[in-house]
Amino acid sequence: MTSVTTTSSGKEPNQPTWKIKLLYDGECPLCVREVNFLTKKDAGRGIVKFVDIADLDYDSQDNAGIDFATAMGRIHAVLPDDKIIKDIEVFRRVYEELGMGWIYAITKLPVLGAIADWLYGIWADWRLKLTGRPDLATVIAKRQEKLKSKSDPGRCKIY
Q1: Contact assessment for residue 92 and residue 142, using Cβ atoms and an 8 Å cutoff
Q2: Distance of alpha carbon 147 from alpha carbon 150, whole angstroms
Q3: How far apart are CA 66 and CA 118, in angstroms?
Q4: Average of pLDDT values for 96-117?
Q5: I want to staple 79 with a disulfide (CB 3.0 to 4.6 A). Which of 24, 83, 105, 120 is the partner?
């Protein structure tokens, strides 16, 4: 008989304890406000793992292969089995896991869900501009430059 070592939570050591990993833009003031709200609702339970894609240490390999540009275009989340979800489904699942599923419950209805996804798509396309930030191509280029500087700290920087 083989035995499996478990942690005090009863999970296998390599199994995540979170139920959903939310990828968010830590440079977006509205995203940060939402994450702060959700963090309070999580109340230290670790149900939601929050991953800041704006962090220069963000690694797509740790997040089901979702690269920075893709994550910046639309909200994404990763489930413990590495299944990727996006758009309104992310909010619906996070809120359900935190016991507030009633907030997004109406989006489960096919027609209303489609409308909510469409409206979210408009928001996602305009999010950077509405929050006073440059367009996605500029954000990506600036990130690449920061990553390049980080990997070559002796490089002369001209501002």
Answers
A1: no
A2: 5
A3: 22
A4: 96
A5: 83
